[in-house]
Amino acid sequence: MCLMMLLVVGMINAQSDSIRIVDLGEAVLQAQAVTETTTHSIIVPSSLDKAHSSNAFDMLHAMNLSGLDVSYNAKQVFNSVGKEVVLCINGIEASADEIAALRSKSVVSIEFQRTPDGKYAGSGGVLNFKTVQYEYGGNFLITAKESFLYNGGEYLASADYHKSKSRLALLYSNNWGLQQQKQIVNNNYVFANGDKLHKESLINPLASKEIANTVNLRFSNKGDNYRISLLGAFSDKNNPCYRALSTSSYKGSVQETATASIASSSYDEAFFTKANYSLWLPNRQVVDITAFATSGRNVYRYDYSETNQSQINTRVEEDNASVSGMLQYFKTFHRGMNFSTIVDYHYSFYNDIYDGTVTGTQVLENHVSSIRWQLSKGGSKHFYYISAGLSNMNIRLNESRYHYLNPTANYGINYTPQNNHAISFTGFYVNTLFSPSNKNDIAVPSSFFEMDKGNPNLKPINVLSHTLEYNHAWNNTSLTASYMNYNYFNNILHVYEVDDKHIYSTVSNDGNFYGNMLTLTVAQKFCEDRLQIALTAIEEYNMLKGNVYNLSKNVLRAKLKIDYRINKTRIGLEAASPYNALDIREPYFVEVPLKATLYAMWNWKNWNLEASIHNPWSQYAVTERYMNYSCYDMHIEKYDLKEGRTVALKVTYNFGYGKTTSPENYAIESILNSAIMKSHE
To answer: Is the peptide bond before 460 cis (omega within 30 degrees of 0)?
Structure first.
């Protein structure tokens, strides 16, 4: 099927005299599905990709792009070094469910920025889906997936209506699953007085059902020189009753065989709204405003009863709220030089009430503001930007106040000597934000000798990261090679301390983490694109250097994807090799098992049927964790039913209706300040 695509070369501005149209011609896009420009990649899905997929995630998976990691049936996209990519539809940031509800037949082209600047600077990239434009009409999609052996379900329904340049969309999703993880524990403890304790446990959970619901309502409108998007949503996540039985054998300072009953429940709900307004002004100026607000309530209950020990009851009720806003001003000068200023503010509030064995109240407030100035410039073969500023954090924990002032920086360059290969380099220096899970002053018991102890004196992590990536495509082959270096200063991790009777787990700043990742992906298409094979090799070398821990680990792992299309059917295999890695947060070493998924899907008109089997050789996926914390030697085997043998069936029905605009009006911008800085269709 022939497609005529237009490339807009020039300033991103709503003024017609600042845009120049260049006809690429049919042959270029037919011969090459990915075209590199100085600022982004233009990805054009083929009719074969659309015919063998039902939504945008499926289509990306079917396209087998070497620079993007899209797993089967996943609702996330990662870049070549594993950083999550921001997702947009026609320049408006979208949720994972909205992308899952986007029909593949509605996608005209995709733009991928590896070096995003502006408000998305520092992210793993920006992926923008350009869709069919309507004079009037819309889309409807409903998906139902049921998993067997491991019981679970995913349901998604979406409907939208377009009228001229306005769009109204309603989305509902429901996910549920039985949470069941069996654990075998062999731990050794050494207390301050020299007493030793060995614990062997078998924890058998009873099946518990976790349910999550989300409702989204979005309105968007485009004018001659503005664009507005309004989103309102509600979500809840409910695990009404988790129960487990534990049989433990103690040797050492305690000599007995004990049984324990573990029960917990949780409920989280949140309302949130988001508004975005972009205004194109005369003299090559753009103003973009984003506002976000959320209000939520979380309730958590935990009961632990062990033979011959006092019962432990924990009740936590949390009310939380947050408000944030961002203002970006963008100005273009002569010779392609751009200047922008970004000012943002974020406020979050948490009020936690503890009841049961431990009682108390905790209030945490975060006030975070920042300002950044950015310069950028594009040429015939390159684009670069550099931004710098300050981040100011004011924290209140109960009656104590903390203040942190840190510099921030983002920078990147993209060099495109030809339209089939590109070299990009990005870097950033930022700091983290606090939540009650790590900055608090509450100590909560989890057993008769174990305590989780809060640390109110935590400092933010400062992160310095760089990524170098090379992409090249020729004939039916594409290659992506990348290297990422990332450094966490004042790294936050768990530190364990003991007295004569208890072991305390405390989250603390200790030393630095230095990470290195080298990735190589080769994707090849055969048989007129019907057979596609992709192989990824990943090498990681990570070091944790501090007063408490001095650890390092080298990891080599691989991923394989084979995909074949015949008639209306698509079958494939995905596999990821086992590996042993260093988890830097606890920290601990973890052995991850081999994972594989076989899938088959059949498309007919507006219907899509899928069947898959995950890890067919084992009922449970076994993950092993081990670490010697000096006073605490940990060895835990986790048997996860969800990641074990699972058979799933999925059915999707979708259709579009109405009158679309003519294909000549579909334009692809070649110069982007960010995903929101776009001229209008």
So the answer is: no
